Amino acid sequence: MHPVLKTMKKLLTIFSILFFVVACTKVVMPVATENDAKRASEKWPNTTLADLTQGKSLYEQHCAGCHKLYKPDSHNEAQWNKIVPPMANKAKIDSEKENLILKYLVTMSASRN
């Protein structure tokens, strides 16, 4: 085989492996705890751990379909309050699910700051 072809084959193999590794890398979202639920219920009375868990699940299910997921602590509460509503509208997510996603993101952003 020609030396240039060998080099190209090696480069193609390396790039393929790199692409696979990057494509398969998944952002792991933090899991809410009872302490997070207590903190959330101070802001939104009667918010439960199940609510935050459902918000996390909805965020992962609905938002990852269109773009990469951002960790909750990548934005503060004011930023999430500006980001989530138009994105939920664009994704045709109803207000109940939008609120669960927002509660999860805001609560978990505050737990890490």
Could you please describe the fold and organization of this structure?
The protein has 113 residues and is mainly alpha-helical. The chain has one domain (28-112). It has five helices and no strands. The chain has helices at 3-24, 34-43, 49-63, 77-90, 95-112. α2 (34-43) packs across α5 and α4 packs antiparallel against α5. The longest helix is centred in the N-terminal third of the chain and has 22 residues, at 3-24. The model has no long low-confidence stretch (mean pLDDT 87).
Write down the domain tally.
1
Q: Summarize the main sheet.
A: none
**Helices and strands: which structural class?**
mainly alpha
> What is the count of helical runs?
5
Order of helices and strands: HHHHH
Uncertain stretches: none
In whole angstroms, the N-to-C terminal distance is: 57 Å
Please tell me how large the radius of gyration is: 20 Å
Helix content range of the residues, please?
A: 55-70%
The strand count comes to 0
Q: Beta-sheet strand percentage?
A: under 5%
* Overall pLDDT score: 87
